[in-house]
Amino acid sequence: MIEKNYQPADIEARMSVVWEDSLAFKAGRPDRRDAVPFTIVIPPPNVTGSLHMGHALNNTLQDILCRFERMRGRDVLWQPGTDHAGIATQMVVERQLMERQQPGRREMGRAKFLERVWQWKAESGDTIINQLKRLGASCDWSRERFTMDEGLSKAVVKVFVELHREGLIYKDKRLVNWDTKLLTAISDLEVQQTEVKGHLWYLRYPIEGKTFSPEDPSTFIVVATTRPETMLGDTGVAVHPEDERYQKLVGKNVILPLVGRKIKIVADDYSDPEKGSGAVKVTPAHDFNDFEVGNRHGLRRISVIDREGCLDLVDNEDYLHELPEGASQFAEEFHKVDRFAARKRIVERLESFGFVERIEPHTHMVPHGDRSGTVIEPYLTDQWYVDAKTLAKPAIAAVRSGETSFVPKNWEKTYFDWMENIQPWCISRQLWWGHQIPAWYGPDGKVFVAETEEEAISHALGYYVEQEVITAEQGREMALDRNKREGFITRDEDVLDTWFSSALWPFSTLGWPEDAPEVQRYYPTNALVTGFDIIFFWVARMMMMGLHFMKEVPFSTVYIHALVRDEKGAKMSKSKGNVIDPLNLIDEYGADALRFTLAAMAAQGRDIKLATSRVEGYRNFATKLWNASRFAEMNHCAVPDGFEPAKAKETLNRWIAHESAHTTREVTEAIEAYRFNDAAGAIYRFVWNVYCDWYVELAKPVLLGPDSPAKDETRAMVAWARDEILKLLHPFMPFITEELWEVTAKRDGLLALAPWPLKRAEPTPEQLAMLAATTGTTDPLVSPAWVMPIFDHADFTDPAAEAEIGWVIDLVTQIRSVRAEMNIPPATLTALVLAGASAETRERAPRWTDVIKRMARLSEISFADHAPDGAVQLLVRGEVAALPLKGVIDVAAERTRLDKEIGKADADIKRAESKLANEKFVANAAEEVVEEEREKREAALARKAKLLEALERLKQAS
Question: How far apart are CA 655 and CA 653, in angstroms?
Answer without folding.
Answer: 5
